[in-house]
Amino acid sequence: MGKAEAVLDETMLIRDVDRGSHYIRDWTGEADGDPSFVARPRNVDEVVELVRYCADNGLAVVPQGGHTGLVEGASARIEGGHVLVSLERMNRIRAIDPLNFSVEVEAGCVLEVLHQAVEAEDLMFPLSLGAKGSCQIGGNVATNAGGINVLRYGMMRDLVLGLEVVLPDGRVWNGLKTLRKDNTGYDLKQLFLGSEGTLGIVTAATLKLFPRPSHVETMFLAVETAAEAIRLFAAARRHLADLLSAFELISDRSVELALTMPDLVNPLETAAPYYVLLEASSSGPLDLEALVGGFLEFALEEGMILDGVRASSVAQAQKIWAIREGVVEAQVKHGTYLRTDVSVPISEVAVCIDEVEVALAGAVADGVVLTYGHIGDGNMHFVVMPPRAMAEGPERHAWIKASEAVIFEIVDRRGGSISAEHGIGRVKRSAFEKRASATQMELLRAIRSAIDPDNRMNPGAIFE
Question: Which of 81, 232, 286, 309 falls 20 to 30 Å from 414 in CA-CA distance?
């Protein structure tokens, strides 16, 4: 038995890693790497022993959650000895506190499992994304996950009360407080939120909960332009009394692609250049139905919408949301393509969409451009798929990079960000470093050096 086995028993280790397994291949199927082994600890003590073992043996550490990311932030590396640390066995919900509206949960807990557990207590954890059936809380923390409810509840950064983290030297920082107000010095948990595993391994978190909505209104609306969608958004914010929880824009080409998935149909008879998926929710005695009715009447009178449907049941609402999810699921059938995750101020969303679609039509003709996203918080996804006849290889790669350059230049001009919610990982590292100021990079490296002086935690992610 070697040193690795002395740290974790044989059932903890995967030494001969299947090259096609989810530990190696991320959701895109494009990542690859060669880890020394995969470790699956069951508790904090085993994570500590593993991290110390890696330090003693010169191995880098790559923390891994559900591996549903899109920027290779938790992927195995090609170069250098390293260990993939999967938190999947640390999946307990330690405690739910209904009076404090909080929950303590281990990093490997799948998001959808947490949803189900707190719903049984008539509570809600609002983070929700397409990968909720696979993504894990630790990964949500490490990437500062966003999703469909950011508009009302904020990103993961706004939902975390405290963290438990194993540091690069094996020490444990226990910051699992459940306080809403704690002004005792630097807020250390915020360092680890969005750090993509470069500062330590998140092993548990305390999270905010909310009353479970008793009434949800879901609408699918047709609009003429992106500018009209933003006008509709402003009206919804004012008419729905801060109960607006999601506002998604989906282009016609995106809907067409989604409808290639089984059992999906457009609930509207009116074809339109863009569609808006809007959701509002409430708990208690508020008359949400009347609020929504008044909003829709106003929007129709003002000519903001061409057509629309209001879900009359949970099943119909799920079918509407399935269209939004189908946009992403259908993409993987089209080979290597460009995925972007950008944000601009909400007031710049419409003009940014128009500029990107016009510029791409001229710069990379014959491709398919999909536009969709959480525009209620300024986050858009421009997906560009090369012509079907274009084979995989250098030409296709160059075509994709050219498309990305067009999009990023417009986003820069509009005061935006090249990563709204997916993170930097390894895929966007060069683009990030190109845009970061010298002062920003100096501060980031100072933080990294202070916590991980040997650069062993997920090296190569975010920046070199």
Answer: 232
How far is residue 147's CA from residue 126's CA, in Å, rounded to a whole number? 9
Render pLDDT for 337-394 as a digit per residue (tens, 0 to 9).
999 999 999 999 999 999 999 999 887 778 899 999 999 999 999 999 998 888 889 9
Other CB atoms within 10 A of residue 306 CB? 18
Question: 85: how many CB neighbours lie within 10 A of its CB?
Answer: 24
For residue 421, what are its two tokens? 């919610």
β-bridge pairing 342-343 and 338-339: unpaired
Which residues lie closer than 8 Å to 120 by C-beta, 6 or more apart?
none
| Among the ranges given (197-201, 270-274, 362-366, 441-445), the one the predictor scored with the smallest mean pLDDT | 362-366
Q: How far is CA 379 from CA 407, 411, 421, in A?
A: 13, 11, 8
Total residue count of the chain as it appears in this document? 464
166 and 44 Cβ atoms separated by less than 8 Å:
yes
The string of DSSP codes covering 51-118 is: HHHHHHTT-EEEEESS---SS-SSPPPSSS-EEEEE-TT---EEEEETTTTEEEEETT-BHHHHHHHH
- The DSSP line for 392-443 is SSHHHHHHHHHHHHHHHHHHHHTT-BSBSSS--TTTTHHHHHHHS-HHHHHH
Structure tokens at 211: 């009353």
Please give the pLDDT value at position 5.
Answer: 46
* pTM exceeding the 0.85 threshold for the entire prediction: yes
Find the helix packing angle between 226-239 and 288-301, rounded to 10°. 140
Cα 215 to Cα 107, 229, 290: the distances in Å are: 30, 24, 12
Instruction: Please provide the distance, in angstroms rounded to a whole number, between the alpha carbons at the two ends of the chain.
Output: 35
